[in-house]
Amino acid sequence: MSNLVQDKKDTDFFSSLKESPSTNEFIKGLWRDNPVFVQVLGMCPVLAVSNTAENALAMGLATAFVLLMSNLLVSSLRNFIPKQVRIASYILIIATFVTITDYAIQAISVELHKSLGAFISLIVVNCLILSRAESFASKNNIGRSMLDALGMGVGFIFALFCLGAVREVLGNGTIFGFSLFPEAFQEWIVMILPAGGFFTLAAWLLIFNIIQKKGSKT
Amino acid sequence: MNTESLWYIFINASLINNFVLAYFLGICPFLGVSGKIETASKMGGAVTFVMFISSMCAYGIHALLVAIDAPFLQLISYIVVIASTVQLVEMFIRKMSPALFRALGIFLPLITTNCAILGLALFQTNKGYGFIESFVYALGAGAGFTLALILIAGLREQLDFADVPGVVKGTTLTLLIAGILSLSFMGFSGLGS
Q: Structural domain boundaries of chain A?
């Protein structure tokens, strides 16, 4: 993923950007400022649809798409939107893209649309997207905002996948629908239930905290 | 339209399918404002009120959108209604009780991005609830949200005195408690049938 972006950057659109800070915009979303594990933003979809790896991945992609498009639009309109009505305008922009995504997913796979349910529409109120629009896209140029959105989006997909994979493997004994364990494996039903979402996220946060603590000591 | 009794709708929204602990809606204020019982209960009250108004408006908007055959406008019009309701509540609280206004602080405008409210509007539309049913559903959802918020705030107040390892403190600990609370709320699941 990071290679792909770098290639793109060297050729056209991103060529005007300086090498180090712009890669930084991308990398920071992956690890140091990971939207889920570090900033703890956009928790609702993270917990709700991460019961299987497939749902998690689809939700991550949808959110990343909305994030990318709204960051692009907010950043290109940043000089035209009056300061007083900026939040309302951002929400309208986001709602438009979410509606597009909603209809697109319904057209691609009705089954997936059913299993994600109302949570696709609820991307509108994902704090992550609004916070990127307000704190980054409204202050930076289009190229940097896109990189920021890409980084945050990939970080979000990564985090959702981490949760979804663990919950599916432990709760259902499968990954992407393929059986992983012999027949005798007793599924941890609790992992697919809502409580499992809280526990898995808590466990990941714990691991993240421990790693960061070790990093800061050395 | 459907045969669920009003009492069942209320119990369903507040206990069996609690918005916070079973649907994971409104997790942000749930993690953010749940430090003290007092603020938690006031926040619950404000959210319940906004839910109430926006649920009524959503019912009207849905009827209008069905009439003019424009379902793709649903999401956009719901969010606009919610945002303006929150603005209204904010002005109202500032006039009536400046003390409460200061206590809620930044979390008052943030109710706009509370998924529980938009979720409520979407769920009631999906379930095809009528006016009275939506009314009861909003009440139940608000009560459930407030209950979950107060419960977790109570637990966190007690945990302030406990000796927990440094790495678990903060969000991790809150999530663990929420998980246990969610497990115990599953005990209500037999109530409805």
A: 19-217
User: Is the Cβ–Cβ distance between A157 and A57 less than 8 Å?
Assistant: yes
Q: How many CA atoms lie within 13 A of B96 on its CB side?
A: 7
Which of B23, B80, B112 is the closest to A48 by Cβ? B23
Alpha helices (H) along B69-114: 74-96, 98-104
As given in the structure block, the two tokens for residue B97 are 């009780």
Closest CA to B79 of B107, B120, B44: B120
ipTM: 0.81
* Residue ranges covered by each domain of chain B: 6-163
Interface check for A77 against chain B (CB to CB < 8 A): the answer is: no
- State the nearest Cα–Cα gap between A151 and chain B, in angstroms: 22
Q: What is the pLDDT of residues B160-193, one digit of tens each?
A: 888 888 778 778 888 888 899 888 888 887 776 5
Nearest CA in chain A to B121: A118
Rg (CA), chain B: 17
Question: 10-residue block means of pLDDT along chain A (218 residues)?
Answer: 42 44 73 77 80 88 93 91 83 91 91 85 85 86 89 90 88 78 76 86 87 77
H/E/C letters for each residue in A195-213? HHHHHHHHHHHHHHHHHHH
Residues of A in contact with B180 (CB under 8 A): 195
Task: Flag whether residue B25 sits within 8 Å of chain A, measured between CB atoms.
Answer: yes
B72 touches chain A (CB under 8 A): yes
Q: Which of A152, A119, A121 is nearest to A45 (CA)?
A: A119
Cβ partners under 8 Å of residue A202, min gap 6: B172, B173, B175, B176, B179
Contact B126 A118 (CB under 8 A): yes
Task: Output the six-digit token pair for B94.
Answer: 């500032």
Inter-chain residue contact B113 with A130, CB threshold 8 Å: yes
Minimal Cα distance from A96: which residue of B?
B76
Q: How far apart are CA B41 and CA B148, in angstroms?
A: 10
Computed on alpha carbons and rounded to an integer, the radius of gyration of chain A in Å comes to 18
**pTM of the full structure:** 0.82
